[in-house]
Amino acid sequence: MHRMVFLFLLTVLISCSKPPSEIEAEEEFFIGLSPTATQEEIRPIESAATPTIFPTETSIEPPGTPEPAPQWDLSGVTLIEATHLMDPEYFQISMENWPGDLPEGVRVLVDMEEYNCDLLFPEEYPGRVYCWGLAPERGKSVFVSVFLPGDNEPAWLLPFVVPAPGGDE
Question: How does DSSP assign the chain, residue by residue?
C-alpha cells in the first residue's frame, strides 16, 4: 500500500516539474488523439518527408512442367532363385536383369508380404536384386509382385511354388 502511494506521489511530482510549454504541447497532442475529438480539433501531422517507393522485382517464374517419372521396363526381369535362408522362417528371392538402380519406393511382395530389397553386389552381379522377408508356406503357389513408386498395379508379376526348406533348387 505504501509503495502505491509513493509511486503516485512520485508521478505527480515528476509531471509538475515540466515547464508549462511542454505540458501544453502534450495536452494539444492528446486532444487531437482523443476519441471524443471533433473534426476541428484533429490536426494532421505535417511532415516534410515523402515516402520513397522502391521498385520491386516481380518476376515470378511459373512452375515448370514436372519431369515425368522414369519408366521402368521390367519385361526382361527373371526370377533366378527362391530359397529359404538359414532360419527357415525367412525366405529370399533373387531377380536378374533389373534395369538400372533400384528406385526408392519400389515395393516387392511375395504372397502379399512386403519384402526388403537391395542391389547387394552391383559390381559382381549388375542388375541383380535380392529381396528377403518372412517365408510363405512351403508347397504353396504364390506370386512375386513388383510395384513401382506411386503405382497401385504391379509392374511385374510372376507365380512360383514355394520350395521346402533344405529342398531348395
Answer: -HHHHHHHHHHHHHHHTS-HHHHHHHHHHHHHH-TT--TTT--PPP-S--PPPPP----PPPPPPPPPPPPP--TT-EEEEEEE-SSTTEEEEEEE---SS--TT-EEEETTEEEEEE-S-TTTSTT-EEEEEEPPPTT-EEEEEEE-TT-SS-SEEEEEEPPPTT---
Number of domains making up the chain: 2
Cell 537391395 sits on residue: 118
pTM for this one? 0.56
Would residue 131 count as lying in a domain?
A: yes
Reference 145, options 108, 118, 103, 119; nearest CA is: 108
Structural domain that includes position 120? 78-161
46 assigned to some structural domain: no
| CA–CA gap between residue 114 and residue 144 (Å, rounded) | 10
CATH number at residue 112: 2.60.40
Query: Does 85 share its domain with 148?
Result: yes
Q: What is the pLDDT of residues 12-30, one digit of tens each?
A: 555 555 555 555 555 554 4
